């Protein structure tokens, strides 16, 4: 059927593009990219500063805010908050898959909330992925630089983490809130049924 023809008897005309997700809006993509880049730059800059200025030693730390925060450089072969240590190569592959899935999802993203959530997760994933690719002991097996310990040194009350971990967790929590509220990537309420 050409665009000039009327629909066949009993058929309904379908507007162009129906059934396909709407393309992302340029402002939403720009917000997504800006959040991802900001999270990545802050993480990389903080790790460079920590590695240059804070010795990697179990007894060396900086106490801030009357002990609410301790700055202490440690190396982590695991995932966020030292989970999954010993699975560095697997975590590298998972991070690459997550990055690919998020970038693919961005093509249909029209929600500012999802742009922020996925931008945070992408920036954090890229920050830790950079450590895994470029730090010792080697590509794909590198250990992540963690440096924030809450309420005590050595991660005694909470595992030591970095800004990438914080971005991933904040992005995941934002995504969970959006999902619970029923907001789709395209910004419309989720279809129930």
Largest sheet: 3 strands, antiparallel
Structural class: mainly alpha
Low-confidence stretches: none
Q: What's the end-to-end separation, in Å? A: 32 Å
What fraction, in percent, of the residue positions are helical?
40-55%
Number of domains: 1
- SSE topology string: HEEHHEH
Strand order of the largest sheet: 1-2-3
Number of strands: 3
**What proportion of the residues form beta strands (DSSP E)?**
5-15%
Shape: globular
Whole-number mean pLDDT: 83
Give me the Rg, rounded.
22 Å
Number of helices: 4
Describe this structure in words.
The protein is mainly α. The chain has one domain. It contains 4 helices and 3 strands. It has a 3-stranded antiparallel beta sheet with strand order 1-2-3. A hairpin with a 4-residue loop joins strand 1 (62-64) and strand 2. The model has no long low-confidence stretch (mean pLDDT 83).
Relevant terms:
193 residues; mainly alpha; 46% helix; globular
Nutshell version of this structure?
The chain is mostly helical and 193 residues long. It has helices at residues 26-53, 88-106, 112-134, 163-181, and strands at residues 62-64, 69-76, 144-150.
Chart the SSEs and their pairings.
Blueprint: H1 26-53, E1 62-64, E2 69-76, H2 88-106, H3 112-134, E3 144-150, H4 163-181
Antiparallel strand pairs: 1-2, 2-3
Helix pairs in contact: 1-3, 2-3, 3-4
